[in-house]
Write a structure and sequence with these properties.
InterPro entries: DHFR-like_dom_sf, RibDG_C, Riboflavin_Biosynth_HTPR. By secondary structure, this protein is an alpha/beta fold. It has a single domain, classed as Dihydrofolate Reductase, subunit A (3-Layer(aba) Sandwich), CATH 3.40.430.10. The chain is 21% helix and 25% strand. The radius of gyration is 16 Å and the shape is globular. The relative contact order is 0.25.
């Protein structure tokens, strides 16, 4: 069984979206600054370049480290919807299991690599089965990350902190009261984010 990685980007004050996030503004109004590191600088949700275009060497090294040997992923319905379903093209290199309370909604075509699942536990079982000996990535939103941490299944937590203060939005650890001592495995510093990879006690 492979490892489980949880990864997300936050502001300095701990927000993973700015206010008013939704289908028209997946990271909230002004929240696209959180992901400047993905594109190597400022970008627009209306005209986003291909992810990774212009990414600086430190961010490339971080991405290479956390994405090595991944075989499947899990994300929330909000992330799936706000991304515009990634244009119907799965960018994760393996099946992506989308957590939703409405699994019987119009389902994605299985050929896209997207699958609706009702519940984190079921999603993890399916993702591990699909990944085999490779790892499983747990992506946004914040609630999905918290569920994975509470379940005690996360081996590695990778947090990119963008040099912005949003003041409001959705916080990564809202309502999370578990006590965790993390071990820093690696730090990659770029002009657009500080990427820290933590080992999570199991």
């Amino acid at each position: 069984m492979g490892h489980v990685l949880a990864t997300i980007t936050t502001s300095v004050d701990g927000y993973v979206t700015a206010p008013d996030d939704g289908p028209e503004a997946g990271l909230g109004v002004g929240g696209e600054r959180l992901h400047n590191w993905v594109f190597g600088g400022p970008w627009s949700q209306d005209s986003a370049p291909e992810p990774g275009t212009g990414m600086d060497p430190a961010s490339e090294a971080y991405m290479a480290q956390i994405t090595a040997d991944l075989g499947a992923g899990i994300c929330g319905r909000g992330m799936y919807e706000s991304s515009g379903h990634w244009g119907g093209r799965n960018p994760f290199g393996g099946p992506l299991f989308v957590l939703t309370h409405r699994p019987d909604d119009e389902r994605p075509d299985p050929s896209t690599g997207f699958f609706f699942v009702d519940g984190f536990d079921e999603a993890l079982v399916l993702a591990r089965e699909a990944a085999g000996d490779r790892g499983v990535s747990v992506n946004g939103g914040a609630d999905v990350i918290r569920q994975a941490l509470r379940a005690g299944v996360v081996d590695t937590l990778a947090i990119s902190t963008a040099p912005v203060v949003l003041g409001a939005g959705k916080r990564l650890f809202d309502g999370f009261d578990d006590d965790l001592d993390l071990t820093i495995e690696a730090v990659h510093t770029s002009p657009w984010a500080t990427h820290v990879i933590y080992r999570v006690p199991r």
